[in-house]
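User: Hey, quick favor. My workstation is busy. Could you predict this chain's structure for me?
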Amino acid sequence: MNIPSKYEANTVEGKWYEYWMQHNYFRSVPDGREPYTIVIPPPNVTGVLHMGHMLNNTIQDVLIRRARLKGFNACWVPGTDHASIATEAKVVARLKEHGINKSDLTREEFLKHAWDWTEEYGGVILEQLKKLGCSCDWDRTKFTMDDDMSTSVIKVFVDLYEKGLIYRGHRMVNWDPEAKTTLSDEEVIYEERQGLLYYLEYSIVGSDEKVTIATTRPETILGDTAICINPNDERYTHLKGKKAIVPLVNREIPIIEDEYVDLEFGTGCLKVTPAHDENDKVLGEKHQLEVIDIFNDDATLNSFGMHYEGMDRFDVRKAISKELEQKGFLVKTENHVNKVGTSERTKAVIEPRLSEQWFLKMEELVKPAIKAVLEDEDVKLFPKKFENTYRHWMENIRDWNISRQLWWGHQIPAWYYGDGQNDFVVAETVEQALEKAKEATGNAGLTVNDLRQEEDSLDTWFSSWLWPISVFGGVLEPENEEIEYYYPTNDLVTGPDILFFWVARMIIAGYEFRGEKPFSNVYLTGLVRDKQRRKMSKSLGNSPDALGLIKEYGADGVRVGLLLSSAAGNDLLFDEGLCQQGKGFANKIWNAFRLVKGWEVSDTLEQPEVAKSAISWYKSRFNATLENIEDQFDKYRISDALMATYKLIWDDFCSWLLEMVKPAYQQPIDKKTYEEVLSLFEDNLKILHPFMPFLTEEIWQLMKVRTPEDALIIASWPEKGAVDADLIADFDLAAGVISGIRNIRKEKNIAFKNTIDLMVLNNEKAGTHLDPVISKLGNVENLTYVEEKPEGALSFRVRSNEYFIPVTGAVNVEEEIQKLEEELKYTEGFLKSVQKKLSNERFVNNAPEQVVAMEKKKEADAKAKIETLRESLASLK
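Assistant: No problem, here it is.
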């Protein structure tokens, strides 16, 4: 067989992926086997592959390929998310490039552009995942805006509304002025930023008195409707019931009292702007204050902004602070570090804004999900440390703001039939809505034209929280064969940054709509960072081209590189050298295969004892490693499972076993040994396949003629076998002896072609069955056991045993004696210098303790070395 001298990943990978696809190895349909199911965390439909996707999907593919080998009906469901905010922003930006404003389009016209964009760019990331080797059931690919998925979302909305869990309310929300939509609390990222604290003077009506108020946002004075003082603050008791004048605006506002005001912060006086601060809103409702909203939806100022109308809020802050200073209202400014909320999607600074929105009550919904994770452990988080984060979020949950001021998404199924805020009905279709509206109004003459559907769309997460249910049709057909067979799924692999956004909400949905958990285990990966611990991002330019890495190092090399340093829950400090290490591992295995396949096989030769011993040892070592690997997988320590596999194949198989069984130069190998080695090689490929699918399938298929039914991807995972711990321990001793012999050969320049004699002082009564291995790998001609130390020999120790190599014929005695005497003279001189330093009381008393300890260690080491050198000289003379 002509085996290429070099492993060419770029030619191999495409060939085998196409082969797997042609034979439907990824396809899963319900049958009599036990299912193993994973649903992909759906990436944004218009996204591209980045390092986080690479890590996350590699882990999923490892789990699904292992399950397939273990005989499960493995089903990995792929798909994409419509990503309302991100996708709409991209469509709006492209329209602007063509001179089109979203506001000039109808909803239908805009959605046509959005679908055009999705069809043009959507699904690119799924094609890229194929390059990584992901073995998803591509026939099951879902998109959160597919007709059946959309219908599922609407059905769930109506169900929750009819249960009294969805309501419409006028609330303070997080407003993203760039995306022009509200966000849930979880989509706001708080960052510490350096800013200023502005001290402003407000005049008191009817007097010359003024009060000073500190604020971080001077532009919001345009919306002030009160000043609040603490009733226990003696400094301001006299102001009770009076009014103040807002600077620049000249609006009179009441001075109110409330214990909410912190006596110690700022000046003890608080400006109240109910339209632009959550706490101010509470005060406003309590004291029945006027509400003045000064912002447009893009955070420019509206007509309440006076001469600043149309300007951006941050430009106004600079301008108004100058005007306040010029007109004598600004007393001073101070540096001030403030926590600023930013949009998780657009990075824009969030504006608190009063708005009419749709909310989902969470207080009762969340209880089964808390119990499932924190009490019953029906759902396990790996690593367990994330349970504390989960607990904090879930026990402090607020109602979920599920409406978004976007057109790309699932339009809320509410229809208005009048002008009042509560003149609406909720239904799955407009026809059903019409019947409900007729009933609500008593007007049988209503038509569809009299109804107006809610403009808002649902939060993207409101569709993805149904993902493990909806991908199997479980919302529309709750008892269909697929949902009954595949649900609950087994494992979920995702990042901790969406533990609440997605994971917790899926658990909530699972118990609400199926009465059971959506999955059993959640493996939370770390974030991929660069060597400077920075999160990878396009803006920093520190995120490598994912497909470029695959082209350079091969998909298997990249997979190994990522996994070798990605313990669950810990961030991965990505280094391209890790991918080079993975590529090197692939080449090592390829060369081992070429070596084995290059041997001439004899049907007549008997199996040598050394081969028998070596194969018995490797079987035990393999079985011990298999136990370890299984344990690591059970604990979701995927990196450790790979490392155990890596060491087994690189060290034990390639570096030891093949050396032990390798025939002499240009000599054949016996058939029994050859076939056993190939069988062990096959077992290695099976446990390595989940990590390196392409390389392993290539070697598997080159080993012998295989039918499609014999492909590695659907082979059987190795059965656990017996572990001979004593044999493993004996081999560790033998390996130490071989290393000792090799070290002496290197130090004394004894060529390997020259045989040596080895004498053993067997102090620990070790077995002798691995002596043939020692003799072969150490090129030992005579291995004998002695009762006492021989004269004239080089020695080394392994554990408590002592090993001796006679000098005669091995080394030049005179040269060795001269070398040892020179080394002894140097070491004795070194000892004297150390002892001189230690005899100096001034040094001992004044030097740091650790420095003195180090010198004493040098003294002890030198004495031990002198003793060894003298013994070696005595044996040679």
